Here is the input.
Amino acid sequence: MDQEGQEALKKNLELRFKASKAFNPRTPINETRLFVRRIKQLVKVIDAIGQVGAHVVIYGERGVGKTSFANVLENFLPAPDSRLLIPRIACNSADTFLSVWKRVFSSISLNQKRVQGFSETTTPFKVEEQLTEHATPDEVVGILESLQKNNFGFIVIIDEFDRIEDKPTQNLFADTIKGLSDRAIRGTLIIVGVGESVDQLIESHHSIERAIVQIHMPRMSTSELKEILEKGCVETGLQMDERAKTYICRLAQGMPYYAHLLGLYASYSAIDREVTIILIEHVAKALVSAIEETQETIRSLYHKAIHSNYKNAIYEKVLLACALVIPDERGYFSPSYVREKLRSITGKPYEIPHFMKHLNEFCEERGPILRKIGERYRPKYIFTNPLMPSHVLIRGVQSGMIKEEDLLP
Ligand SMILES: Nc1ncnc2c1ncn2[C@@H]1O[C@H](COP(=O)(O)OP(=O)(O)OP(=O)(O)O)[C@@H](O)[C@H]1O
Ligand SMILES: [Mg+2]
Here is the structure.
């Protein structure tokens, strides 16, 4: 390789490296710089932190950005305070009430001052050693209260709470919230997890309803997704054409994962072609990589849903019509919207009864790729995996059933 070739390769690798750092499809955000503010939710959680007796449950679909939110939260607190302890842990399926609190307390490091005669020594104080093997909510509340008496504030963040499936264990956390609230202890417990409602996360929450501030983390709005792309471009020094941004946002269907993934691969594509503006054609290239990256669970679920030996089967088209509908904030859509989309894909005047069988099969033997809620005459559907609609749309574009223009205003 000649000198010029070497220089070009070096520049290419440098830029690709920058893009890899700017877009994070695989990990939650940890840096405020890359975090797109979820304003409504930030205001609600900060208000709650200010109120004595209020504790927070953050819930939402898988992958909407709950952990990223919890990771950067402390950087948005109005007054930095060195006596404010913010332990943050994630649960796993083997966790018990005791193991969770052991991890919470062992991530707090405190020093204890001891005066002996004229000399003063400082030794580490291990909060977790205050816990007994049969830790109860009362005991945990007592330890947190003693922190408060020593002028420490706390915000305890417990992420992935849905991994604890054992109901009695969940109830112990509800009792802890009740204890903290009843005893007016200054400090906030923040529970984060996947769920459509708080009830799904903490069943016995009726006794603690007044103590809990419920924060629903919705899918991202188009402007929030655009901000992900813009922040990524600032990091890489590239620019993205408005239509390319709109196209990615439409494909991402509110899921930040896809904004990062497509942003990353579209950047690679532009960098390899030695241009500084990312265009729709670079996004089109990114779709190929996105499909290659797709998790096997999504891939096989998609195939199970659309597979048919019958040439005129319309499973693939019905599924695409479902993905084309812009759902409500929680991801639900109704068959009447599917009908419109199916008509425009096929050019045929389908009516709802023509594809009800397909929708119902998607909820059962062909999946479940969809889940149904609501009454018999007014059902609503949701994709069981929130990342699936984007996969279906990308497949639709790749197979030529829809075109880029169909996804752009
Ligand atoms: N506010 C944000 N700004 C920029 N990117 C974000 C933001 N929130 C989430 N993301 C990106 O979206 C993806 C999913 O985020 P995250 O892991 O925080 O979601 P989650 O709701 O905790 O997911 P899970 O339900 O799987 O735990 C990651 O790629 C992350 O980088
Ligand atoms: Mg998470």
Observations:
- The first helix runs from residue 3 to 22.
- The chain has 17 helices and twelve strands.
- The chain has a mean pLDDT of 92.
- The pocket of adenosine-5'-triphosphate (ligand 1) is lined by residues 24-25, 28-29, 34-36, 38, 62-68, 194, 228, 256-257, 260 (CB under 6 Å).
